Amino acid sequence: MKEEFEDELRAISPFLANLKKEGNKDDVFKVPQNYFDTLADQIIEKAQAKEKQAYPLSKKAIQEAPTMAKPHFLELVREWIESLLQPRYALGFATALVIAVAGWWFVNNRNVALPVESEMAQLSHEEIHQYITENIDDFDEELILKNQELADTEGDINISDDDIQKYLEENIDEKDIKELENKL
Amino acid sequence: MKEINDEHILDLLNNQGTYERGFRLLMHTYQEPLYKHVRRLVVSHDDANDVIQNTFIKIFRNIERFEGKSKLFTWLYRIATNEAITFLNSKNRKETDTLDDPNGSYVAQSLKADTFFDGDDIQKKLLQALATLPDKQKAVFNLRYYDEMPYEEMSQVLDTSVGALKASYHHAVKKVEAFFKGVEID
Questions:
Q1: CB A8 within 8 A of CB A15
Q2: pTM confidence score
Q3: Burial A89-119, CB ≥16 within 10 A → b, else e
């Protein structure tokens, strides 16, 4: 045992250091007769069998295989078109074509949802009025009143006192004036 | 001496015409120490034979992956150790009896029936003690205690830092000593 290994072991466990020094029999493991003489043959045979399984053709055979002449480009195109017309490919090709045309039509004809604002802008006043009249019950009263107030304040109210006086004279009779005076 | 042999072996392996001769020389040089290393880990000859065959078949098919960054011997040890640990893990999964062998009784039984074991009671008890260690700690103990491998080389074989290996060896020695003295240790 080399000194550095013995010193290290003794520092950790003097018991094991002594055990190793006294009885370190190195050949406790036996092997069958001629085991190491035949091991290389067995391994090479197995490794080569595995290689043959993985690569049925030897590398040499692949390297020595005759190479085919390269066909001309136009010849390749012609062969490709012919192959598409073969019955086994034609059905698949036709199906793919139908799907492609249907897809193109769908993409180009589908109704694209427009933003609400742009759709509203396309409606006439009459249409809006008609819709509101028919569906007035569906509208939230508070929302209508709020919008009405906003509309009133947004518009320019430019009425003179004379116009108000004139409106009252035309639309209110003596009886109404007396009623108003009583309320005040 | 071994470095010169390694160079010669690698030269032969680099040439397709001399590949097989190179491989035979490699096996002739390293089969016995590798077998011993594997046998200490898996104990029975049949298991060691399976592991060593797989190891050398892998070496035969992948020698071009040896980049020369470590010694050839270290690279071979690494493959053999990985192969043995994979084997033990697989065996532990298949045979639940051996999964938990806290007192090494399974190994003791195996050695009793093993006609290829020629050790005395102390050797048997040492193997029983080793059977109680985790597989990687067992490999650390074997490489240091039996093969007297420097920590730097062990680091390449087991892909573990030198510090971690020193700690692992220390712990393994303490566990083996405790096994002999019949004391429990964490």
A1: no
A2: 0.60
A3: eeeeeeeeeeeeeeeeeeeeeeeeeeeeeee
Percent of chain A with pLDDT over 90: 13
Contact residues, chain B, for A19 at CB < 8 Å? 122, 126, 180
**Distance (Å, whole) CA A107 – CA A126:** 34
Cα–Cα distance measured from residue A35 to residue B49, given in angstroms and rounded to the nearest whole number? 10
- In chain A, the residue whose alpha carbon lies closest to the alpha carbon of B143 is A5
- The tens digit of pLDDT for each residue in B160-171 reads 999 999 999 999
One-character DSSP codes across B58-106: HHHHHGGG--SSS-HHHHHHHHHHHHHHHHHHHHHHH-HHHH--TT-HH
The partner residue sitting opposite A16, judged by closest CB among B57, B61, B176, is B176
Using CA atoms, how far apart are residues A123 and B186, in angstroms rounded to an integer?
85
Using one digit for the tens of pLDDT, what is the confidence trace for A53-104? 665 544 544 444 444 445 566 666 776 676 666 665 666 767 777 788 887 8
Q: Are B96 and B174 in contact (CB under 8 A)?
A: no
Question: Which chain B residue shows the shortest CA-CA distance from A51?
Answer: B61
Residues of A in contact with B40 (CB under 8 A): 29
Report the chain B residue with the minimal C-alpha distance to residue A32.
B116
State the count of interchain CB pairs (< 8 A) between A and B. 88
Looking up tokens 């906003």, which residue turns up? A150
Selecting from A9, A19, A39 the residue whose C-beta is nearest the C-beta of B31 gives A39
Q: What is the ipTM of this complex?
A: 0.80
